[in-house]
Design goal:
The complex is a heterodimer of chains A (355) and B (298).
Chain A: H1 13-17, H2 23-43, H3 46-71, H4 79-96, H5 101-120, H6 129-148, H7 150-153, E1 159-161, E2 166-167, E3 170-171, H8 175-196, H9 200-210, H10 212-217, H11 222-248, E4 250-252, H12 258-271, H13 276-300, H14 307-332, H15 336-349
Antiparallel strand pairs in A: 1-4, 2-3
Helix pairs in contact in A: 2-8, 3-8, 3-9, 3-11, 3-12, 3-13, 4-5, 4-6, 4-11, 5-11, 9-11, 12-13, 13-14, 13-15
Chain B: H1 3-36, H2 43-60, H3 65-86, H4 96-113, E1 134-136, E2 139-141, H5 143-165, H6 167-177, H7 179-184, H8 189-215, H9 228-235, H10 240-265, H11 269-284
Antiparallel strand pairs in B: 1-2
Classes of the chains: A mainly alpha (355), B mainly alpha (298).
């Protein structure tokens, strides 16, 4: 039941293509599902569930960015702006037309995909560093537009309140209800990316990343697939923005500034570029980092500093640790947490026999 | 002279002078890109740190100005050297995103370091020049901007001589042109990488002192770094005259936008217009006005 394979022993195509290569994989998936759908939401306190909800939102955003940066190899520093596009589209639809959340979610995602494809147009002419700067410009221009066009931002504060999502008569207001709401989308997002990467489109993305000229020669339309990568990635970003808006109950451009774009880039670099599991690890890590820092500083910071200094130091400590971790992973383990996890797994695969 | 024309000239002169001060910061960026093909997203933070050092020495220790300037330059040069050795050398040959993210991480660290320094809050950085602007007809010109423009032009001349005439400068151009061939000719490529970062540190130190005087020294001084990208893209990433011309264009464009477009849309175009211009430049001429034409077609 718990044994792992020690070689490739498959004799039929069905076995080779099976979703679960070994019984243990099936049990693992079942155990994870029980843990996240039953154990965690029913035992943890509301506060921890709100943290978990932030992690879920980050996972969807990180998966989206990984499609573009990790799988297609196009650098983007504009992810936060695409989220804001989704968020404000949904908020405006909800308040002006009173449309239900599934419509807003889809519309937010599609609007972000459209804007993302437009920002991605320079990628047809430039790449690498120049593309990074172009997407940075996209981020700043979208931020500015939302902040200054009152039709979008709904006034001076540039924030729009949004009613809680509802399923029929059931209004999702507590953290526990939001937990289930978001978890459904996390599962959909993960399955979506995993399957996308097995299709013609996903393979084309990877081919463009690995060698764009070769990809063009084997018949991949680079123009179309690069824009598609931007659109799909931005769709994920837009959905993330809408979910975040529903989670907070308010759409505010300050939640989607350039720092957020950098946070998401950090997630996929710390987690591992071009891997689903890496996006998840990175999202968890980067979301929990400030919370852990705050708790540990509140617990132990008082030994070295006065209470007021501790409060002042927390955001700076976060910035510094965050930067140091990015640099550490880039230099020491470019493949990120995903690689560390694989190393651990392959060690235990044949444990205790080291052959 | 009519009122409107006077206003226009005022915007132009302000734009040109502030543009030269942008050029000073962009110069640091260009030096690194030219020599090492690395891009420095932490340029604004370099400037900020220099401002912190100078203001700290000047205001907290009460040391004389020359010592503050010297210490700022010295510490930034040392910082550039060390940074190249411990961080950027390990990233040679890695994809663009690795270097981009590493410098973003560095920016994050430097920004977090700010309040750990000896003071908090915005500190002035007084220089021994007069505060009142010179009045020339409709123009009024703050002396600090003249000083900044002068320093920028002096650096342009200095680097022009350095790269065209001096042995080290020619070696650096060789490194920038082709690292492998330079290595084969007996040039210590890695040493020149360090030199390039140290030179960036020096330019940033002076930028930090001048901008610190203009804006006051606090964490927001780093935001000047965001102006670097339009400047270098317009001028060409690897061109020193390009940094000057790009700075002038950005300075003029943002002042004209602030003067004529702001009243129509209600403010904020100053930060926005250079980026729109930059997007256009990227679409039409991504290598900039003076940059090398080696953009790969995609």
């Amino acid at each position: 039941m718990i044994q792992r394979e020690c070689g490739v022993l498959k004799t039929t195509y069905e076995a080779d293509m099976g979703l679960y290569p070994l019984p243990i994989a099936r049990w693992t998936v079942a155990a994870i599902a029980v843990l996240f759908f039953l154990v965690i939401p029913l035992t943890l306190h509301e506060y921890f569930l709100s943290v978990a909800n932030l992690v879920w939102i980050a996972i969807i955003g990180a998966l989206g960015l990984n499609i573009l940066v990790g799988y297609t190899g196009q650098v983007s520093i504009g992810h936060g702006a695409f989220m804001s596009v989704g968020a404000y589209t949904a908020a405006n639809l909800a308040n002006r037309l009173g449309s239900p959340w599934p419509v807003n979610l889809l519309a937010g995602g599609l609007m972000a995909a459209l804007i993302g494809a437009i920002v991605g147009i320079p990628s047809l002419r430039i790449k690498g560093l120049y593309l990074a700067i172009a997407t940075l410009a996209g981020q700043l221009i979208i931020e500015w537009t939302i902040n200054h066009v009152t039709f979008i931002s709904g006034g001076v504060q540039a924030s729009i309140e949004v009613a809680r999502p509802r399923l029929g008569p059931w209004i999702l207001s507590s953290q526990r209800e939001m937990y289930y709401f978001l978890l459904v989308f996390v599962v959909l997002a993960i399955i979506g990316v995993m399957n996308l990467m097995r299709t013609r489109v996903g393979r084309a993305f990877i081919a463009i990343r690995d060698q764009d000229i070769a990809a063009e020669i084997i018949g991949i339309n680079i123009f179309r697939y690069k824009l598609l990568a931007f659109a799909i990635s931005s769709f994920y970003a837009g959905v993330t923005g809408v979910l975040y808006t529903y989670f907070l109950g308010i759409a505010n451009y300050e939640q989607f500034q350039i720092g957020v774009s950098i946070d998401y880039l950090a997630m996929i670099i710390i987690g591992g570029l071009g891997s689903v599991l890496g996006s998840i690890f990175g999202a968890i890590f980067v979301t929990l980092l400030p919370i852990v820092i705050r708790y540990s500083m509140e617990a132990f910071g008082g030994i070295f500093f006065s209470q007021q200094t501790v409060l002042n130091l927390i955001p700076n400590l976060r910035l510094m640790l965050f930067g140091a971790l990015i640099i550490f992973f880039l230099i020491v383990e470019p493949e990120g947490l995903n690689r560390l996890w694989r190393n651990i797994r392959s060690y235990f695969r044949v444990w205790p026999f080291a052959y | 002279m009519s009122e409107d024309l006077g206003f226009f000239f005022l915007l132009m002169s302000n734009g040109l002078l502030i543009g030269l001060m942008y050029s000073l910061i962009a110069l640091g960026f260009v030096l690194v890109y030219k020599a090492t093909d690395a891009i420095n997203f932490a340029q604004g933070e370099f400037v900020m740190i220099a401002g912190f050092v100078a203001a700290g020495v000047l205001m907290v220790w009460g040391a004389p100005l020359w010592l503050a300037v010297l210490l700022a330059i010295g510490s930034l040069v040392a910082f550039g050297f060390v940074l190249e050795r411990v961080m950027l050398r390990k990233l040679i040959g890695r994809p663009v995103i690795a270097v981009v993210m590493a410098t973003i991480g560095l920016a994050s660290i430097l920004r977090g370091l700010g309040p750990f320094t000896i003071f908090s809050g915005t500190k002035p950085l007084p220089l021994p020049i007069r505060d009142e602007p010179f009045m020339l007809g409709p123009l009024f010109i703050p002396p600090i901007q003249i000083l900044g423009a002068g320093v920028s032009l002096a650096f342009l001349a200095g680097f022009g001589w350095f790269f065209l005439r001096s042995r080290k400068g020619i070696a650096m151009r060789a490194v920038a042109d082709n690292q492998q061939v330079a290595m084969a000719m007996g040039i210590d490529v890695e040493r020149y990488f360090g030199v390039a970062w140290a030179m960036t540190g020096m330019v940033s130190a002076l930028g930090g002192i001048l901008w610190g005087n203009l804006l006051g020294v606090d964490v927001n001084l780093a935001l000047v770094g965001f102006k670097v990208f339009p400047v270098v893209i317009l001028g060409g990433l690897d061109s020193i005259p390009g940094a000057i011309i790009g700075g002038l264009i950005v300075g003029v464009v943002e002042n004209i936008a602030a003067g004529y477009v702001d009243p129509l849309v209600g403010g904020g175009t100053k930060d926005f217009a250079p980026y729109v211009l930059m997007i256009l430049a990227l679409m039409i001429r991504p290598y900039g006005i003076f940059g090398k034409r080696i953009i790969e077609r995609v």
